[in-house]
Design brief:
By secondary structure, this protein is mostly helical. The protein is extended. Among the domains are: 115 residues, no CATH class; 150 residues, no CATH class. It has 15 helices and no strands. The termini are far apart. InterPro entries: AI-2E-like. Its main location: membrane. Keywords: Cell membrane, Membrane, Transmembrane, Transmembrane helix, Transport.
Amino acid sequence: MAPTDETGQTAPQAPPFGTTPPPRSPAEGAVGPGTRMPRWLPRAMVLALGLVAAFQFGSWAFHQLTGLLINILIAFFLALAIEPAVSRMAARGMRRGLATFLVFLGLTIAVAGFVTLLGSILAGQIIKMVEGFPDYLDSVINWINTTFHTELRRVDVQEGLLHSDWLRRYAQNSAAGVLDVSAQVLGGLFQLLTIGLFSFYFAADGPRLRRTVCSVLPPARQTEVLRAWEIAVDKTGGYLYSRGLMALVSGVAHYILLQALGVPYAPVLGVWVGLVSQFIPTIGTYLAGALPMLIAFTVDPWYALWVLVFVVIYQQFENYMLQPKLTAKTVDIHPAVAFGSVIAGTALLGAVGALIAIPAVATLQAFLGAYVKRYAVTDDPRVHGHRRRATAPGGLLARAGRLWTAPRQRTATDEAGREPAVAEDGD
């Protein structure tokens, strides 16, 4: 008797050993021990794993090379800035490499001389402050004793400072941070060397680089690339020109203030404020104003306060009035676009983005403007920014007179139209 299951039906039996099982019908399902894996599934799994691995490797490599890519970007814009000078010297028969070397040599000598001069001035002022610190401390202690009726002495203050825990911790932290500062200085020098090397190659081999890029493009695309390159050179030069003008205005304004206050080295400090505040983004303003304040403090502490107030006021004037208008004229972009591009560049690349944002946006805007078709604007008051007023002849008084006499004329007309009807009733 065949075995039955719990419901009373005959349970399926396994085929005898050594016999081939009967084929399964589609209704019984396609998944089973005899079902074969699709041929495309292993390839799809391998392809998916390869894409994930490639994405992870690309992301890791990009993060590792971010510093190098930023340095190359800075070098490219620096090469665009010196491109006109190099091309002008090369057009007169000088080799392009020699012309680039002379331009870099002139820039290096100017920067090194300026930094050396400022360093000597700063060192002299620091020595002067250290030598005059005891006298200044005596004047402060005398003022405190006179005002608050205390009996402080300079010896007690000095001993308290020398034996304080704050000074000891500060000395320990400073000694521990010497290595970090040295590493940062060496890293900065290596970064400057990298930027200078790449910018030299970009400027010296500019025609060869353009030929290499154009060799992999069709002729129509080559024209577009060369036009974009030329626009980038013009806009970068215009941006540097605007920065130079703002540096000149800022330097002259701060020189007048420092000269009026009697602060020493006023011409050099004016040049310092102009260059640092314009060509070092984000923190340039604070670095530029710190040195004049320090030197003014050695003359009179109140002078340092006056310099601080002037720096803050002039910075607002420059941000909201001078820079938008001047940048819009030299780089040919709207002031709001210039301001927004600086904010966006700072958010993306920090100080580097703030420095190259305006020439990059100006280049992109000029390049796209060559391919945007424009039409004649209709003559509508809403386009011109004002509505046309329909002025009646006779001026405002005549218009008011007509408004006053219009109801009376209308009443007289109505009465004249009703008079014939009254006469007929009377007959």
